[in-house]
Design brief:
The protein is built from six helices and 21 strands. It has 304 residues and is α+β, with helices and mostly antiparallel strands. The protein has two domains: 136 residues, Copper Amine Oxidase, Chain A, domain 1, CATH 3.30.457.10; 143 residues, Jelly Rolls. It has an eight-stranded antiparallel beta sheet with strand order 14-15-16-17-21-20-19-18. The chain is elongated and about 60 Å long. 38% of the residues are buried. The N terminus is likely disordered.
Length: 304
């Protein structure tokens, strides 16, 4: 199993490494209802015939509020006028419009510390008309005027649960989730803080998060979801080792001084599932705890 150190680090490689095809000297512009969108410190570019633009500028130009979940590398937006929500994860080949998946030709990525998103998919997801002016290298977006509605805050996309049983029962009862595993409950001596379990329906990701009493206090996050991707949400790290635990090859990384994390996939009846474990503590060697937790996930993840 070959894993990138992180989605963000991979996305910050040079333009040639990413296969960006836009000419560096050509300026691509974007207009919304005739007004040019200003991109201050990162210009739009074309990759695989799709124009990517800075996330915040385009969402705000379209009248949506936008938030960034750094833990999951996820863009969360909401347009209070059209009542359209969009959820998009860095590196994913799909976005979710009001929880309905839309396939992408080009995934969102981070370039020069700016999150770049495919403008056509975003605009069309918000019910806009999109055209391309080849002569002037301009993306033309038309958004019809809609009645003013009271402002709205972005709803928390995570569903919180107080116990592991509640989380797993909710996933099992969700016919659309297609998740047939139980999230592991760490076998090391542990006390999970309240609301330490949550589920992100748009990405089909389950997460255990909280403070565990493992010798000294430690912050531990365990994530799992279908597919083959790095879901650690950590932006880089030094690879420490790669070893087989249970039936899976697991890669371990050290991030900064006090965090160790592991990423791996396992096969469940022909379907790949991604897992990540991260451990943060200033008081002890986190890699051994990380390995213990990985083994626990492997032992509790039902195969077949």
């Amino acid at each position: 199993m070959k894993k990138f150190i992180s989605l963000t680090l991979a996305a910050m490689l040079s333009a040639s490494a990413m296969g960006i095809t836009a000419l560096a000297e050509d300026k691509i512009t974007v207009t919304v209802n005739g007004a040019e969108v200003v991109f201050e410190d990162q210009a739009p570019f074309v990759e695989n015939d799709r124009t990517l633009v800075p996330m915040r500028a385009i969402f705000e130009a379209l009248g949506a509020v936008v938030e960034w979940d750094g833990e999951t590398q996820t863009v969360i937006s909401y347009d209070p006028k059209s009542e359209v929500s969009i959820v998009l994860q860095i590196g994913s080949n799909k976005l979710f419009v009001n929880d309905k998946p839309v396939e992408l030709d080009v995934a969102a990525k981070v370039v020069n510390e700016r999150t770049m998103v495919p403008v056509r998919a975003i605009a069309e997801g918000m019910n806009c008309k999109v055209d391309w002016d080849q002569e002037n290298l301009t993306v033309i977006i038309v958004k019809e005027a809609e009645p003013e509605l009271p402002g709205a805050e972005i709803a928390n996309p995570w569903t919180e649960y107080k116990t592991l049983d509640e989380l797993n029962a909710a996933i099992s009862n969700n016919a659309d989730a297609k998740v047939k595993y139980a999230v592991a409950d760490p076998s090391v001596p542990a006390t999970v803080s309240e609301n330490g379990y949550r589920y992100l329906a748009a990405e089909n990701m389950a997460e255990i998060k909280g403070l565990w009493e493992v010798g000294a206090g430690a912050e531990i996050v365990i994530r799992t979801m279908p597919g083959d991707t790095d879901i650690s949400g950590i932006t880089g790290g030094e690879k420490l080792s790669e070893e087989k635990i249970g039936d899976s090859m697991v890669e371990f990384y050290r991030y900064a001084e006090n965090t160790v994390y592991a990423v791996w996939t396992c096969d469940d009846a022909g379907t790949l599932y991604s897992h990540s474990v991260s451990v943060t503590s200033p008081d002890f060697d986190t890699i051994e705890v990380c390995k213990t937790l990985v083994k626990d996930v492997e032992d509790h993840h039902p195969k077949g």
